[in-house]
Design a protein that fits this description.
With 174 residues, the protein is an all-alpha fold. Helices cover 75% and strands 0% of the residues. Helix 2 packs across helix 4, helix 4 crosses helix 8 and helix 7 packs across helix 9.
């Protein structure tokens, strides 16, 4: 079993052989996060790789305080925002986005994803980090640089909006 604190300390001591261990620890979660924020698997893989490149490039500036998970998610968030801005600037909106096979088969998952994407950005990000990435409320507060109470309040509001939209959808199907 890989111990996160030891891996980070070894990297800080310039033992670069431990980078693979760091990537193994966080790659699946960061990839899943990027997949939520990009239009296809290839873009998510690119975003994940870019996240780790930036994490390594700026590792010297990271002050180890037990918050590396928040740190790497913040990098991933910024990378995904940059990709979104670039795509918007390139105006490639005419292309239909690629949808992963497994996603298209899960209708309820797609409906939930649509409801989440309809939330205001400040709510959507908290819902994704909490439920899709399983971050704690405290980790989300650190990553988003907001108070814990604000995270709690926004999450509560987001869930109310999702519930309200679900009820509205059920009424329309009757």
């Amino acid at each position: 079993m890989i111990h996160k604190g030891r891996v980070l300390q070894k990297i800080k001591n310039e033992d670069m052989a431990c980078l693979n261990e760091l990537i193994e620890l966080y790659y699946p979660d960061i990839f899943r996060y990027c997949l939520w924020h990009t239009s296809n698997r290839q873009t998510a893989e690119d975003a994940t790789q870019e996240t780790f490149l930036k994490a390594v490039r700026y590792f010297g500036k990271y002050i180890h305080s037990g918050k590396f998970k928040s740190y790497i998610y913040k990098i991933a968030s910024n990378v995904c925002i940059d990709i979104w801005r670039k795509k918007k600037a390139d105006s490639l909106s005419g292309d239909l986005p690629y949808v992963e096979k497994g996603f298209s088969e899960a209708e309820s998952y797609a409906d939930l994803k649509e409801l989440v994407w309809k939330l205001p950005k400040k709510y959507r990000e908290i819902v994704l980090l909490r439920f899709a990435q399983d971050l704690s409320l405290r980790e989300i507060a650190e990553m988003e640089n907001i108070h814990l109470r604000t995270v709690q309040s926004r999450l509560r509001s987001a869930l109310k909006q999702i519930r309200k939209s679900m009820k509205k959808g059920e009424e329309n199907h009757e």
